[in-house]
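Action item from last meeting closed. Structure (374 res):
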């Protein structure tokens, strides 16, 4: 037992590990509601919005002061201890005695179970056996009762920014307190929140998926952006073209369009050969092409007709079988005779026309050779 106790003591003396007792409540608070912020001044409450701001004295009656005292006593005792357990190697807590390391009290003899501050808590500066909750933003006009959790004093409420602000009968955030009606009367551009205890900035038409942070000023949630009227609408980084952005990064194409890598593209159900589908069922031909009789097929155009051939591309002729393109005229296809036509001319595909004084050689069937007439 003495080995275990010394392990706990040495955890503080040697390693700086927070070894904490379990008895007693939290004695003081470093963030939000600590005595260093000077919230309580005799029979008054000091309202602070931020460090260094000029305090506003709000006088309390005896009943209100009694409610505050009761709140402080009740709330402080209800704050969690913030103490957790953690297993660490025993050798990190004690020095070996004659080469022997005492058995720890953890799940393994080599481990010791020590008390540390839980996540969201920190060691009390006045009593290292106690842990206090941490609020990253100070709890002015309230107490930090848990990690990033403030509990407002009586007659204070949390506004839309999470700050503790006065409410009737001692004040009214963004308004004035009508003591006769015991309610807030909001300034121009502000409106009562649902609880009726403080005034919120108003945005005409609302903000949609966002927050109204000032009069007619919206801050949109992630993935949304203000439209021309200031309303928060979904945002699609690349745009949707002929579609609608229905959610962050999600496009819905309009009728007659379909999704593509570039967004929404028009559909031409019969295709658009040699053209571009520029609108639903509308084909626009590329340069050098014109719409054919089918209405959905762009056909090549040539400035002049293709003799013995077809116009297969912009000003490009493809010759019929048995013809070859004239080297001097791109729109003319000449007949081709593979073996040539000695003593004649090629008048058709593999067909020779003999010169005057020459006839076809009949000694060979199918021969196109021209021989001298005898």
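Sequence:
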């Amino acid at each position: 037992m003495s080995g275990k106790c010394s392990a706990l003591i040495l955890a503080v003396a040697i390693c700086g590990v927070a070894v904490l007792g379990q008895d007693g409540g939290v004695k003081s608070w470093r963030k939000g509601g600590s005595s260093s912020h000077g919230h309580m001044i005799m029979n008054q409450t000091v309202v602070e919005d931020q460090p260094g701001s000029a305090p506003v004295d709000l006088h309390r009656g005896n009943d209100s002061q009694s409610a505050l005292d009761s709140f402080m006593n009740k709330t402080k005792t209800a704050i969690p201890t913030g103490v957790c357990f953690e297993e660490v190697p025993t050798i990190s807590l004690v020095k070996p005695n004659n080469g022997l390391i005492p058995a720890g009290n953890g799940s393994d003899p080599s481990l010791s179970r020590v008390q540390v501050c839980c996540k969201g808590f920190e060691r009390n500066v006045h009593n290292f056996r106690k842990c206090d909750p941490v609020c990253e933003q100070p709890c002015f006009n309230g107490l930090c009762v848990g990690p990033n959790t403030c509990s407002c004093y009586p007659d204070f409420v949390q506004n839309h920014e999470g700050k503790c602000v006065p409410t009737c009968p001692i004040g009214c955030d963004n308004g004035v307190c009508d003591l006769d009606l015991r309610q807030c009367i909001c300034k121009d551009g502000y409106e009562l929140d649902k609880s009726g205890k403080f005034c919120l900035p108003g945005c005409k038409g609302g903000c949609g998926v966002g927050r109204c942070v000032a009069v007619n000023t919206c801050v949109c949630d992630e993935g949304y952006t203000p439209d021309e009227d200031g309303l928060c609408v979904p945002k699609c980084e690349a745009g949707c073209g002929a579609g609608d952005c229905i959610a962050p990064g999600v496009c819905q194409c309009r009728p007659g369009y379909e999704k593509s890598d570039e967004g929404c593209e028009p559909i031409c159900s019969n295709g658009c050969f040699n053209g571009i589908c520029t609108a639903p069922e509308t084909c626009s031909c590329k340069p050098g092409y014109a719409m054919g009789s089918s209405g959905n097929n762009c056909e090549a155009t040539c400035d002049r007709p293709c003799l013995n051939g077809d116009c297969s591309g912009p000003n490009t002729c493809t010759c019929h079988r048995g013809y070859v393109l004239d080297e001097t005229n791109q729109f003319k296809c000449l007949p081709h005779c593979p073996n040539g036509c000695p003593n004649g001319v090629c008048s058709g595909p593999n067909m020779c026309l003999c010169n005057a004084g020459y006839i076809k050689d009949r000694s060979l069937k199918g021969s196109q050779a021209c021989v001298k007439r005898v």
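Note appended to the action item: Confidence is low (pLDDT under 50) at residues 1-46, 49-57.
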